[in-house]
Known about the structure:
Distance between the termini: 78 Å
Shape: globular
Strand content: 15-25%
CATH class of the domain at 49-226: Mainly Beta
Amino acid sequence: MDKDAITGKNPLAAPAEAAPRHSVFLEYAESLLVTVILALFFTTFILQAYRIPTPSMEPTLLVGDHLLVNKFIFGGRGDWFERVLPYRPIHRGDIIVFKFPFADHTNYVKRAIGLPGDRLRIVDQLVYINGKLLSEPYAYHPEGNSEPYGDNFPPAPGRNAYVPYGMVQNEWRSEMFRYIRDGDLIVPPHKYFAMGDNRERSWDSRYWGFVDEDAIMGRPMFIYWSVNSAGDEAADQTLSGGAASFVDVLVHFPTRTRWSRMFHLVH
């Protein structure tokens, strides 16, 4: 029997040709493009990673905590898709990630304390909302520290109003008095008053004003990694500083990782 008949080969068939190089390149380019588009979609609409660089949210969030932020949660803007997607309004006490309203629009993380329409006042470190004392089990007041607006806020309007220079954002310095009525700060529509849990070490709405609704990106879900790092090290955003920090953490990964905080839910 003919060998080609045994193997099933057709002696008249042309030999198989390798795929053209440009075709292979296009396949890889298409796969890469789809990957980039999906990554951009997820980081734009669903999830985003965020690192805690300062102690303003201690002890809830520590310097070196790495969070996954849920960007697919807050609604309330009246968009048509909010009726069919699982959005919800921002609640008092929610931890929020947002774009800082001044400077280079760095991402900040604080807690939403005052909602639109609220009347807010701080007396002897206690927060009152609409005349009622707010229960804040998360608030932390370390010994020996005192911020200018840590005990009492807002300042009384008038010529002798206490506005600490060097701490209060220039734009907020005079604007805040527009919202003070009978000793309360009135939160305007579509704005939020945000504060850090570490009240004596938090530069927040007391010092730079309200958070715009459109600036709020989402809510932290959980800590996916936590590394023991100093505040100044974590806050170094330069290329050389970031590279040095990365190498140092990589070398000391087992000993500097806070294993007990891994996958810790954020409340």
